[in-house]
């Protein structure tokens, strides 16, 4: 086989290739490396690197294809999941079909996969070039017996992504400290957010910290650089319980939507970051009409929802500087009040207007942009637990 020229996954490119995800059902017993190379005509060295990055996943039984699946993919799914076929596979005895469809990472290129195994290969994993620009030792805030506190840089992932666990804060902090056991993720902040993150030394402390979060013993304070002023006090919204960005929030209670609350403790006027500072931190220009003043807010996060601060502040007409996902929709709402079907100037729909309402929601979602690739105006400036017995602060935010 003549393989195309291959330059390795490292050094890291400064850009991301277009997404490419391949779905395979193994047709014959084989080593996973050999099978992927043959099926996709990829160099063995490249596939080995993908496995190291955590970009190859398997399931004993092929999961249900998505609505976008081709007729051929649907045909193969029906063929390999027929009850008569599954009965012959000893590896799934004692498991329900749903259990057998759960995906796991392939960790070694010499792992053996039997016929009928499902493989998902992220041929173009999402990359994080920022990881290679950081002096990681300088970002370590504290090292204790059971945990490490990191001042996470913007543009990095705390624990990795579905297709890339190599280029993560946990991996690079582990190396910077010369640890033999990898650090474990205890909680998340967005890739575009910087600030305090706790990484566990052991699985035991990871469980302990998770318990502290569940019992609301962990307190997080944030600095937010908003594009408009905000009043001090508690802001309440309700978030749509769909695990998909953008996160939609409503000022009025909606059945089964999740409560979102934050407290603006302080809001002060500051200069909008200079062009030089924005370029240095790759902050995106999202079209906010006035760029002379910004507003630095100190926020106590009372509930910890994904994108909560970003979505709530945008809903208040004060999106975060550089937030390419939420600011474009806020700009559109500013120009044409009423576009947000959950906002202050929303139209009230009746049961006869259900189709119009669904169209308005879809159009509102379409006004949002893509997830920022680098810094936005948000820092997890302080984290504490056990009633302040343990408390840590991040350094100055990028905009100061």
Automatic annotation (TrEMBL):
GO terms for biological process: enzyme-directed rRNA pseudouridine synthesis. InterPro entries: PsdUridine_synth_cat_dom_sf, PsdUridine_synth_RsuA/RluA, RluA_PseudoU_synthase. Residues 147-315 form the Pseudouridine synthase RsuA/RluA-like domain. One of its GO terms (molecular function) is RNA binding. It comes from the Eukaryota. This is Pseudouridine synthase RsuA/RluA-like domain-containing protein.
């Amino acid at each position: 086989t003549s393989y195309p020229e291959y330059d390795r996954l490292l050094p890291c490119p400064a850009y991301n290739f277009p997404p490419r995800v391949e779905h395979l059902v193994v047709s014959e017993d084989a080593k996973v490396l050999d099978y992927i190379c043959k099926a996709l005509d990829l160099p063995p060295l490249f596939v080995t690197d993908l496995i190291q990055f955590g970009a190859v996943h398997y399931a004993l039984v092929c999961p249900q294809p998505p609505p976008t699946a081709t007729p051929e993919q649907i045909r193969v799914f029906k063929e390999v999941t027929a009850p008569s076929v599954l009965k012959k596979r000893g590896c799934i005895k004692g498991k329900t079909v749903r259990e057998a469809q759960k995906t796991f990472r392939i960790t070694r290129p010499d792992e053996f996969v039997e016929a009928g195994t499902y493989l998902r290969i992220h041929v173009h994993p999402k990359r994080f070039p920022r990881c290679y620009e950081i002096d990681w030792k300088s970002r370590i805030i504290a090292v204790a017996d059971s945990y490490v506190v990191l001042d996470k840089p913007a543009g990095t992932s705390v624990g990795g992504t579905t297709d890339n666990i190599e280029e993560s804060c946990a991996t690079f902090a582990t190396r910077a400290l010369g640890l033999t056991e990898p650090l474990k993720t205890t909680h998340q902040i967005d890739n575009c957010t910087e600030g305090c993150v706790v990484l566990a030394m052991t699985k035991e402390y990871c469980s302990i910290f998770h318990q502290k979060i569940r019992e609301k013993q962990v307190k997080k304070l944030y600095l937010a650089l908003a594009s408009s002023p905000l009043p001090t006090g508690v802001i309440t919204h309700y978030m749509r319980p769909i695990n998909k960005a953008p996160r939609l929030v409503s000022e009025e209670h909606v059945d089964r939507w999740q409560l979102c609350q934050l407290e603006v403790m302080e809001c002060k006027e500051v200069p909008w970051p200079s062009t030089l500072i924005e370029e240095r931190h790759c902050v995106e220009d999202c079209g906010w009409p006035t760029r002379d003043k910004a507003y630095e807010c100190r926020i106590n996060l009372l509930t910890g929802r994904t994108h909560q601060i970003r979505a709530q502040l945008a809903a208040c007409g004060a999106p975060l500087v550089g937030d390419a996902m939420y600011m474009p929709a806020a700009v559109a709402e500013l120009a044409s009040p009423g576009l947000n079907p959950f906002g202050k100037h929303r139209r009230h729909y009746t049961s006869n207007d259900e189709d119009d309402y669904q169209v308005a929601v879809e159009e509102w979602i379409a006004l949002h942009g893509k997830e920022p690739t680098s810094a936005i105006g948000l820092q997890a400036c302080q984290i504490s637990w056990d009633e302040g017995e343990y408390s840590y602060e991040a350094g100055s935010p990028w905009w100061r």
